Amino acid sequence: MKQTWWKEAVVYQVYWRSFLDTNGDGFGDLEGVIQKLDYIQNLGVDVIWLNPCYESPDFDNGYDISDYRSIMSKAGTMETFERLLEEVHSKGMKLIMDLVVNHTSEQHPWFIESRSSKDNPKRDYYIWSDQPNNWRSYFTPSTWELDESTGEYYFHSFAVQQPDLNWKNPEVRQEVYSLMKFWLDKGIDGFRMDVINLLAKQEGFPDAENSEDISYLGNNPGIHEYLHEMHEEVLKHYDIFTVGEIPFVTPEDGLLYVGEDRQELHTLFHFEVCDYMAHWDMKRFKEIQRRWYHGLWGKGWNSQFLNNHDHTRLVTRFGNDTTYRVESAKCFATLLHMLPGMPYIYQGEEIGMTGVRYPSIEDYNDIAMKNRYKEEVEKGRNSQEVFESLLHLSRDNSRTPVQWDDTENGGFTSGAPWMKVNPNYKEINVAQALKDPDSVYYYYKQLIQLRKQNEVMVYGNFEELFEDHQQIYSFTRGLKSEKWLVVLNISEQQVQVHLPENLTSFDRELMISNYNNQVDGKSKFLMKPYEARVYRLI
Ligand code: TEU
Ligand code: CA
Fold this sequence. Notes:
The protein is an alpha/beta fold. Helix content is 28%, strand content 17%.
């Protein structure tokens, strides 16, 4: 297997609790993933990223782990997991797990011991202080929670139920390396590393100028020493790949995590799009892509995603989930697969699933949303106004169950679904997509096949056209003698495109498009709303 097999991979993210329920308890499970592996494989993807399925009290849907070496009963058993891994490999795919080691659950035995007394041997597995500072956490007004039993505060970057591990403690680091090897020795193919740039904390926890800008949580001195040690102690001994979830990072800092010479991680997700663009912003998106291409290309490898289990579904957030749902889903799929970097497909994206608007806060599960709702209402704000302000970016937009068919609950469960199924499952579902040759599903499949047959999509350089255009995103990808032209009309208007002089001399072979019968002139053509075209220049 080529050392850089992962650079050519397409990744499919499975949020198993919303994927398929096979025992009627209303939660998806690993058995459900096994039953749908042919569906996933049929897309042509190479790697499955499985969200956390370790033992957890589930305050943050598995991102609060109480036992790193066992499978949460909702998901199944270790036997189910091992069968899943075996099946994934037998179908020629790979499986990466979620590594969540910035924090544990408050119910992890380590924390139960650590909080039991100030002189407990595991006290320094976590971060304790009698001097809380003014930092906000991701999910709460303060990063500090008072523990009555010892009168000290513990640090948590996320929910109160997610105490941060103290990575300054070498025993903690060795515990993590040991649990990583436990899973790698089972044969998994790597890790997606949860907020891995938060492991090191600012020395002395100084008060922040502006505690609303929580970037003080990340990229602190010591982080690269930790990740290099992880590389030396664990990662370099396995043929795996690692993708770091790295919020608050610029391309220059990003390169310090994924530079080919750094011996830390293989690739990363930055969050300049998904944490800061609530809606589509062409100017900003182009600028981000430009910066990351010039920052990493030839030195490190980027990853591309337009939604995941934390971020609203792309047709709702960036596209058009009504009149042009299919066209815009395909347009963004083209963008995802034609940009430089590894494409990540979030379950349901391949059938153009949309975000959701439920009527009451009781219909929602996301701890981030519910904590913020409570915080704002307790400040005296109007509860309906607060609720409505949180809907667009609620993480539950992407956590509604996968819509398999038009039977009750979209075929997701025979029981009561843990999260209501999006009512549009009658029109938008896998069964319908598989029957429709023009569905979003087959378009994703075609893009993935193109990528397998044409390494210009993986290794080709990136040169922009129409940089300032507000509707048209266009660029070429070039590798050796191959040159492909991508033209996307990311708007609801028709747009006339006039090709630059240096490209009009080429003939063009249309490789993929989301419309049929193009109006195609030698140097100009009319792009319909959300029309995507990829040409091979001859
Ligand atoms: O998410 C970290 C992170 O960056 C998210 O908090 C994201 O920016 C935010 O949710 C946007 O709404 C990871 C996991 O993906 C997330 O599901 C967990 O809740 C979080 O870490 C804590 O483990
Ligand atoms: Ca189940």
